[in-house]
Amino acid sequence: MCASVKYGSRGPALIPRMKTKHRIYYITLFSVVLLGLIATGMFQFWPHSIESSAEWSLDRRSVHDAPLVRIPMSSPIPERGDLSCRMHTCFDVYRCGYNPKNKIKVYIYPLQRFVDEVGVPISSTGLSREYNDLLSAISDSDFYTDDVTRACLFIPSTDVLNQNSLRIRETAQALAMLPRWDKGMNHLLFNMLPGGPPDYNTALDVPRDRALLAGGGFSTWTYRQGYDVSIPVYSPLSAEVDLPERQPGPRRYFILSSQTAIHREYRVELERLKEENGEALLLLDKCSNLSQGLASVRKRCYKGQVYDYPQILQESSFCVVLRGARLGQATLSDVLQAGCVPVIMADSYILPFSEVLDWKRASVVIPEEKLPEMYTILKSIPHRQVEEMQRQARWFWEAYFSSMKAIGMTTLQIINDRIYPYAARTYEEWNNPSVVKWSSVNSPLFLPLIPPRSPGFTAVVLTYDRIESLFRVITEISKVPSLAKLLVVWNNQNKSPPEESLWPKVTVPLKVVRTKENKLSNRFFPFDEIETEAVLAIDDDIIMLTSDELQFGYEYFNYLYTYKMPGDIKNWVDAHMNCEDIAMNFLVANITGKAPIKVTPRKKFKCPECTAIDGLSLDQTHMVERSECINKFASVFGTMPLKVVEHRADPVLYKDDFPEKLKSFPNIGSL
């Protein structure tokens, strides 16, 4: 063994230019590898070895001056890998400890050159450009520590991204020689190209004991849920080709297939779909008339016509991503970058970062056996939804796929969220763009896109002809300090509203909107008159609420109710004149994954003006229908999103024996 590697303030020191005595050896090695890649067409020249890239900056990490470590033939070999491993069984969370930033600390082992007893390296490519970028990003991040005693997670400097370049046994022995290995406890390995011919295992074949695996081709058989992290297969084109973001909308082609090494059975079926649907489907393949090399990787052909790749992907609404020899395909990254909605057909494939990303918002997953029905399935998706998916696909690429840094930071954040769940990112933080860049968007998918709002809330009162109780509701609501506007939705087409002089005198704007049809869903329509972000939807008979109770809590989901309610729920509500409140609760619970918050004590419903004739809730069939609608809505949603809650939020001093004037909300529960 040789002297240890020097350290800087943020990680292993950058090693100087390659020494002359090693150049001949590495040039020869590179030539052999390059010929092998050309001969096999191995994954579009991925990954690129640092030693082989003349344009790669030489001030980066390099293995040339790293210590040489010989692996004795008798060195122990780790166990293959425990499929039962979970965070609570194979990971020592106590090593992470508590810190004010709720951030795990990651240690990167010093660079070493592992060789066997006769001096043959364990890897044919050394340190790849991709893995170097990954280690550099981690060592420049807040996760990194150069103090091994403070580390929660350990990352070997041995590059196992591409199994094709590794000697399996010797690589496993090298891992076992790491000073903190301890059967792989709290160690993380990154691998994007697992397995090898003929079976192509979906996880790294290197025996690794209990180490976590960030893998790029997991299947449901090899993925240890909640322990491993499914990562994308990085596409070199992400760094080499600049694809400007394209506005969502219809494209020249409806479906495009660009993969060149798909199974013949799939290509035959795609050709049949092409014959049936003509110009709507573009079926590309490799160009047989071009010489092999980097230039050919960026070209695709159809009947002699040459297309630039990946630019052509931007010309299609949907792009097919079929399984190849491996489940994980770099094509997925190219498709997302192009803002094309990926149609993923790879049975049992664990999608990248699926632990936190909602892929239903950015892709269509179709079983492989449904390939003949692909065109029909995609045609059934509304245009508006396709545009939303195009936006989300591009954003997923920018946030999580665009670089090795993005992939590495996302992986560490997922592990961090497991260890510090109370400080974990929310669903919205993982799946909603933090900054909206599109100039004209009419979709409620991302709540920040709702038009600019004014402070306070708008009270929307649905009424038919109960004038006395309507006026009582208006009078009480007008006392709420945060009220910005009153909007009365007049749902009676056979009777005009009262004259202006008869309405209660209030200090905020009051407007009456007459509807064209008597529908309960009108209470949730996003009227142009609503200029606030928060909206209170209330009926004209809810006279038991006090102004303090209304001030204490309110929410806004009208836009989603009107335009994004799934299935025929809104039509069902309008037809039965029932269950609009339950429908809203289904919608909010499904979006947020949270139970409602009760903000007032239970009180008996009071409506002295209501009779069995004009009161919807007094009809004998009313409660029966409400039971039916719960079953109906659960069927449409495909699940029961409603959650049981035993929590009630009360204001400070609510039940304490203090003078009323000292309480912020003294009039809660007083009726």
UniProtKB/TrEMBL annotation:
Keywords: Coiled coil, Disulfide bond, Endoplasmic reticulum, Membrane, Transferase, Transmembrane, Transmembrane helix. GO terms for molecular function: glycosyltransferase activity. Residues 101-381 form the Exostosin GT47 domain. It comes from the Eukaryota. Its main location: endoplasmic reticulum. Residues 256-283 form a coiled coil. The keyword Repeat does not apply. The chain crosses the membrane at residues 24-46. One of its GO terms (cellular component) is endoplasmic reticulum membrane. It is found in: Endoplasmic reticulum membrane. One of its GO terms (biological process) is heparan sulfate proteoglycan biosynthetic process. Residues 555-654 form the Glycosyl transferase domain. The keyword Transferase applies. Belongs to the glycosyltransferase 47 family. This is Exostosin glycosyltransferase 2. It comes from Cyprinus carpio (Common carp).
